[in-house]
């Protein structure tokens, strides 16, 4: 399992199976903020567990800002990508 850690000046990805971590690149942080906008809050310590995703499933991830109400636990409402 992987954990994304937010520190005051940096972000890190921790691999619990290997007990190792690495800093996140700027591009990774940008994508993370789009997928999980609630992590921008500095008021609460948050842990987001990430499990492996097959590459073909990544094509269906929403890249627009999440509009869910994370305070009430409502799930994000996403729509499938437009067909061409």
Query: For the CA atoms, what is the radius of gyration?
Result: 14 Å
Helix percentage range: 10-25%
Number of helical regions: 2
Question: Helix/strand/pairing class, anyone?
Answer: alpha+beta
How many E strands? 4
User: Cα distance, first to last residue?
Assistant: 36 Å
The major β-sheet equals: 4 strands, antiparallel
Can you tell me the residue ranges where pLDDT is under 50 for at least 5 consecutive residues?
A: none
Mean pLDDT, to the nearest integer, reads: 72
Strand content bin: 15-25%
Strand order of the largest sheet: 3-2-1-4
Region (Disordered): 59-84
In short:
The protein has a domain at 2-52.
Q: Can you offer a commentary on this structure?
A:
The protein has a domain at 2-52. The chain is built from two helices and four strands. It has helices at residues 26-35, 55-58, and strands at 2-6, 11-15, 20-23, 48-50. A hairpin with a 4-residue loop joins strand 2 and strand 3. It is globular and about 40 Å long.
Descriptive key words:
17% helix, alpha+beta, 84 residues, 4-stranded antiparallel beta sheet
Question: Would you spell out the secondary-structure blueprint of this structure?
Answer:
Blueprint: E1 2-6, E2 11-15, E3 20-23, H1 26-35, E4 48-50, H2 55-58
Antiparallel strand pairs: 1-2, 1-4, 2-3
